[in-house]
């Protein structure tokens, strides 16, 4: 994607668009048991919040292991939160719908990185779409179902649909397979798509086509979307807003151009400086030490970035900063931008006031 030009069409956030799906102060801790006895707790996501609005794409960026997939899976109800809440239309999801609920999954769909792994390799395109369609809709007969399958394929440019409908996944190209996965997600008429690195396993030449398809679906169907990526250039191309995660904590978020042109958290600055795309790299002076991300079985207290941060202060080592609003939509969790408490700081998270 980094070789593709960037355009600025989608870089605004519509604050009037209703929030469909939301993570509110969610944490996820995994208990991990060793084969040799003993165990540990992985603090994969800590007190993270994220809002997905109708007709808007939020890009979730951060290096490997920062908790992006875990946050998406919490939003998709793959597993329960350790604390915090997932809300659909403002109401807590588990109380309203429960896990594995068909109604929830007809509204929220997850698209994975590996299109091949997401499909049934033994079955043709028709079957892969038919199951999803029949699970959520009633059809008067075969002809109606067949019409709907072809229509879905055309919607994602999986064409000529009549020729490809009987093809098996291995007979499709990588891009066609991802189109099929997207078509299957659309089969249930969702309001939210959670796309976890949907282009990272595709050939560079077709990545832009898939991004354009996602953009078209957002615009034509008013879908709310989460787009997880390592690639800042594709986030910039696609997303209205960007949210940055580091070691399970959300550190900065806001309108795409505001975050990319004017990053305020030292980690966002580091991430952008190390981005291979010249359009997104910043002239921030001396190169920062990239260092290693922390072990999430024993993460640093306070702001988890403090061992790598060139501006770390004592308070950063003990207390996670509150959310500071930098402009109407741009915010960060960083003590460089927050008022420090006058009394001795306690070793606890201050939480997210939003
Ligand atoms: N089911 C699980 N059990 C134990 N640990 C897990 C589980 N799922 C994720 N983790 C751990 O949680 C942390 C966050 O992982 P996650 O996959 O969410 O990060 P990510 O930002 O999506 O990474 P990547 O970009 O490489 O996909 C990692 O340390 C990972 O090893």
From TrEMBL:
<dbReference type="Pfam" id="PF08352">
    <property type="entry name" value="oligo_HPY"/>
</dbReference>
<keyword id="KW-0067">ATP-binding</keyword>
<keyword id="KW-0813">Transport</keyword>
<keyword id="KW-0547">Nucleotide-binding</keyword>
<dbReference type="GO" id="GO:0015833">
    <property type="term" value="P:peptide transport"/>
</dbReference>
<dbReference type="InterPro" id="IPR013563">
    <property type="entry name" value="Oligopep_ABC_C"/>
</dbReference>
<comment type="similarity">
    <text>Belongs to the ABC transporter superfamily.</text>
</comment>
<protein>
    <submittedName>
        <fullName>ABC transporter ATP-binding protein</fullName>
    </submittedName>
</protein>
<dbReference type="InterPro" id="IPR050319">
    <property type="entry name" value="ABC_transp_ATP-bind"/>
</dbReference>
<dbReference type="GO" id="GO:0055085">
    <property type="term" value="P:transmembrane transport"/>
</dbReference>
<feature type="domain" description="ABC transporter">
    <location>
        <begin position="21"/>
        <end position="272"/>
    </location>
</feature>
<dbReference type="InterPro" id="IPR027417">
    <property type="entry name" value="P-loop_NTPase"/>
</dbReference>
<dbReference type="GO" id="GO:0005524">
    <property type="term" value="F:ATP binding"/>
</dbReference>
<dbReference type="InterPro" id="IPR003439">
    <property type="entry name" value="ABC_transporter-like_ATP-bd"/>
</dbReference>
<dbReference type="InterPro" id="IPR003593">
    <property type="entry name" value="AAA+_ATPase"/>
</dbReference>
<dbReference type="InterPro" id="IPR017871">
    <property type="entry name" value="ABC_transporter-like_CS"/>
</dbReference>
<dbReference type="GO" id="GO:0016887">
    <property type="term" value="F:ATP hydrolysis activity"/>
</dbReference>
<dbReference type="Pfam" id="PF00005">
    <property type="entry name" value="ABC_tran"/>
</dbReference>
């Amino acid at each position: 994607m980094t070789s593709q030009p960037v355009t600025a069409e989608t870089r605004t956030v519509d604050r009037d668009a209703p929030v469909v799906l939301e993570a509110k102060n969610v944490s996820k801790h995994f208990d991990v048991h060793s084969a040799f006895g003993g165990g540990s707790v992985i603090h994969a996501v800590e007190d993270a919040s994220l809002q997905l609005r109708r007709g808007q794409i939020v890009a979730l960026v951060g290096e490997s292991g920062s908790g992006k997939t875990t946050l998406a899976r919490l939003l998709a109800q793959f597993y329960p939160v350790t604390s915090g809440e997932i809300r659909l239309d403002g109401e807590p999801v588990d109380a309203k719908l429960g896990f594995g609920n068909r109604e929830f999954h007809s509204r929220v769909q997850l698209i994975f990185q590996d299109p091949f792994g997401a499909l049934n390799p033994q079955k043709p395109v028709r079957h892969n779409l038919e199951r999803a369609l029949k699970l959520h809709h009633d059809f008067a007969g075969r002809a109606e179902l067949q019409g709907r399958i072809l229509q879905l394929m055309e919607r994602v440019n999986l064409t000529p649909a009549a020729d490809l409908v009987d093809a098996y996944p291995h007979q499709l190209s990588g891009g066609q397979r991802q189109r099929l996965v997207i078509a299957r997600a659309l089969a249930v008429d969702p309001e939210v798509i959670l796309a976890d690195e949907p282009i990272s396993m595709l050939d560079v030449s077709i990545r832009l086509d898939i991004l354009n398809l996602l953009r078209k679906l957002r615009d034509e169907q008013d879908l709310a979307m989460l787009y997880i990526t390592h690639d800042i250039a594709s986030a910039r191309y696609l997303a209205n807003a960007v949210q940055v995660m580091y070691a399970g904590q959300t550190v900065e978020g806001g309108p795409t151009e505001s975050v990319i042109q004017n990053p305020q958290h030292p980690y966002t600055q580091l991430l952008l400086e190390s981005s291979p795309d010249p359009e997104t790299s910043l002239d921030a002076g001396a190169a920062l030490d990239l260092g290693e991300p922390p072990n999430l079985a024993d993460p640093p207290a306070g702001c988890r970035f403090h061992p790598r941060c060139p501006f770390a202060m004592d308070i950063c080592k003990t207390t996670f900063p509150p959310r500071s609003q930098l402009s109407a939509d741009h915010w960060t969790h960083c003590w460089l931008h927050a008022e420090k408490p006058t009394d001795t700081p306690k070793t606890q998270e201050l939480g997210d006031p939003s």
